[in-house]
């Protein structure tokens, strides 16, 4: 998996999927010069920057922040309203993994009631 952020976003925003993959492969091959880096079998490019609803949004901890906000956002409301999503997972923020695991966490809380 690769996450393209910062100044690199405008550079790849209008590229075709295969062009994005080719650029990523160039970087990998530069990083691992001593090894053979095979072509990917499959790939999927999300194009979040063009998504009308998300507009490339995700959580982040500002410089000097503690990450405590993730825990606060994950707090339920009187055991009746539960919150999941990558922004509620301190250990895997900004990822699908974090979103998924937070859903499992909240489902477990509800099932225990």
TrEMBL record:
Record's keyword annotation contains Methyltransferase: no
Q: Which organism is it from?
A: Seriola lalandi dorsalis
Please give the InterPro entries that the UniProt record associates with this protein: Amino_oxidase, FAD/NAD-bd_sf, Flavin_monoamine_oxidase
Alphabetized UniProt keyword annotations: FAD, Flavoprotein
Q: Which domain of life is it from?
A: Eukaryota
Give the protein name, as stated in the record: Lysine-specific histone demethylase 1B-like
Q: Which Gene3D superfamilies does the record cross-reference, listed alphabetically?
A: 3.90.660.10, FAD/NAD(P)-binding domain (3.50.50.60)
Phylogenetic placement of the source organism:
Eukaryota, Metazoa, Chordata, Craniata, Vertebrata
Molecular functions (GO terms)? oxidoreductase activity
Q: Where is the Amine oxidase domain?
A: 2-109
> What cofactors are annotated for this protein?
FAD
Pfam families for this protein:
Amino_oxidase
């Amino acid at each position: 998996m690769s996450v393209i952020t910062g100044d690199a976003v405008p550079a790849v925003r209008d590229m075709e999927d295969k062009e994005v993959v080719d650029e990523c492969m160039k970087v990998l091959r530069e990083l691992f010069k001593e090894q053979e880096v095979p072509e990917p079998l499959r790939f999927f490019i999300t194009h979040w920057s063009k998504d009308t609803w998300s507009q490339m949004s995700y959580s982040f901890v500002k410089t000097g922040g503690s990450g405590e906000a993730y825990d606060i956002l994950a707090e339920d409301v009187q055991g009746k309203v539960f919150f999941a999503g990558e922004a509620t997972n301190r250990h895997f923020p900004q990822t699908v993994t974090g979103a998924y695991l937070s859903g499992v966490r909240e489902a477990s809380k509800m099932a225990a009631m």
